[in-house]
Amino acid sequence: MKKIIILLLLTFVCAIHSHAQRVKLITSGQLTRRLSQGHDTTYIVNFWATWCKPCIKELPVFAQIQQQLSGKPLEVIFVSTDDYHKGLKNIGTFVEKHDLGGEIYLMNEPPAIYLPAINKNWTGSLPATLVVWPGKREWKLYKEVLTYEQLLSLLNAD
Description:
By secondary structure, this protein is α/β, with parallel strands linked by helices.
């Protein structure tokens, strides 16, 4: 019986650890470099938090876009703005519960650093979505909840 309990505990710990491994820490500088890599790729970066109800409501829209446009030069990147001191475990569990796919990060610096680096006019309102079109020098930040139709329209406006 003792061996079974130990085995169950180890399985549970490994499951939590694997959730956390899907989520990586990122700084605004690393994100900027990441978005500069694909010259023919459109990036959608969704900034969200586990406590933000509109963010949670909006998450399936990005998953749907990701699935619908599979095979196209498009990448959806999820960036949690939750308190980075809380670590990856809570975010990993949330990601699994909501079945998020693709690249998932936790912002690893305080808002005073990453907000102006992402957009000088961003005060931190959530949800926020950054769209980076290939070949364009300017990135556009949308500080509102986006519907599937709005997001699709933005992508086609390239």
